[in-house]
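Discussion board: Methods & Data

I've been asked by a reviewer to show the raw model output for two of the constructs in my manuscript, not just the figures. I'm not sure how much to include, so I'm pasting the format here to get opinions. Each protein appears as its amino acid sequence followed by a line of discrete structure tokens. Is this the kind of thing reviewers expect to see in a supplement, or should I convert it first? Here is construct A:
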Amino acid sequence: MNNKNYVMDTGIGIEVLIKHLIKPSNSYFCYIAVSIMESFKPYFGVIAVGLGLLAYFIYISSTLRDKIKPHAFSWLLWTITTGIVFVIQITKGGGAGSWSTGFTCIVCLAIGIISLFKYDKTYALSDILFISVALLALLPWLLTKDPTISAILIASIDVLGYGPTLRKSYFYPNDEKAVSFGLNSAKHFVSFLALEHYEIAMWIYPLSQIFMNGLVVVLILIRRKRLTLTNKSI
């Protein structure tokens, strides 16, 4: 079997991939590298949860002190999508890589509830459209039994959930905490390393979160800088 077939196998583990990409003459070093990586996976899982704790402590404490104003729509939708991803990862043997996903689901629910009751309940039409499309996209997920297709759909829905937060970050960049989104991006990277298997159903969610959280950080920082320059010129 050639390397291409191994890569296309959605059930491939990282140790299998490494073994078939590295030359046989280097098999000993391959074995050492795989063994080290496998032994560190539980630590990666703990580190990911730790990064999540730090990120959400900063975020929730800032929310309770009215320093920032999270968008309830995004966080409540993320509760649903993250919960589904957690179930998929557990059933597919995600191991330590799924720990931070379960933790994130609980925190998303808490932030969503706080935001829903604490802040103004008037929302932009674009926010309602984003969430409506995302919720409608749940229907195909309910009809499919394929975990890979389910994971792709849920990751896509989760990305749609960033719509309201991205809009708010553009117009009100000081209402969000860039450091928390940055830590979350790092958290998902470490949780990716902690996964026991690297198939699409397992890695598509953390990789999409690395990108989307990073996008929010970049948007917040750019908008803050531009607003600062605008205020100075007035």
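Construct B, same format:
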Amino acid sequence: MNPGFITYVTDDKIVYYGTFKMINSFYHFHPDIPLYITTTKDMANELQKYRPMTMGYVNPIMTRLIADEHDLVVHIDSDVIVADRLDEILEGDYDVAVARNNSDQKTAGCGPPYHLDGAVDVFSYANAGLVAATKKEFWDDWVDLNAKNFGKYKMHEQDNLNILINSGKYNVKWLDPIDKPLYYNIASAYGDPKWNGHPEKHWESWERIEVKDNKLWLDNKQIKMLHYAGGETLDKFNFNRHFTPEVKAHLMKICRVPKKCTGE
């Protein structure tokens, strides 16, 4: 298998999203796998081909740019930290691999879960920040469905992704089903439902993350990825905000942040 990972980020968001931390953490665990970074000019060149278009429908358009070069193509959001080897993505026989959007407590962060207004199970609704596919056709189908359903659903391309993976056309692998001791993507980030979606409270759970055997653990589940999705916090992946000193030191190491820096 010839895997390739790809992300997109506008020039004005690279620092805000902490994209260099994603890049460094990815190569810490996968130095032999290419990670493609597309930015504002790349996006402008591609998105001008589609009308109508908003940033809510960019993912498959940019991701399929490498589908002719790799037989496993993986979109990874730019506001992510890779916390361990992503072997569950690199192994197995599947067409599409995805990870949960909603937490074990049936919330999206500290707000109500997303699940296509009940059309899919709470634990079977995927987040679009991590999507892998072994078939180029999948990315084409997602682009087409976005065009067909443009503006129809609250979560835009993410809702269309969930319609597609529940269509029965593709063999779908869940990377972090509720009964597996793993957290991928955003399911590890949640807060007390009493906050009712407060944009600064989605990540309360991260305060309880522990380092065991040089790996991150929460709720007796190993964290493979931290995804700072949701909310409008002013400083994504400021390591001084949500993490214990031990976890901060671990994250700074895998993200190659010098010890004398603050980790902000």
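Answer (T.O., handling editor elsewhere):
This is acceptable in a supplement if you add a one-line summary per construct. For B, something like: The chain has a mean pLDDT of 94.
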